[in-house]
Amino acid sequence: MCFYFFTAVPKKPSNTVPKIRFLSLDEFASIPKYMKGRLGYDNVNTSIQEFNAALEARYAFLAKGFQAMASMALKKRYKEMKSNETRDTRGVFFVVADDLKNSETLKSEASRRVIFTILRHFQLIREIRGPLSLVRYAAVV
Q: What is the mean pLDDT of the chain?
């Protein structure tokens, strides 16, 4: 007589970076006027696309690991990115203002403030504040 015991193998946690969904026209129309100002529908969705690209670039860079960095500048950048992580950010995918410097619409503080207010309104992102006035913008899954 043979007995076979099957145990459930725990699933590995997924390392895929979440993406923020785009706003629909109905959602954009429901944004209060004081929040959006002169911002258009295309600008909001372009900003979401740039946020997703920055999030993807950050975690693709971090996934390489410290040992894979060729130059000292890249190793320094890796250490800076890892220093942004705290207990509050464990398991959360986030970007900081330095990650958004290369984007067109999220480059300046003023435009970032308007767009992120809208994204927080729809609970697509949340802010995680930390020491030294560092603000992390986390994607809500």
A: 88
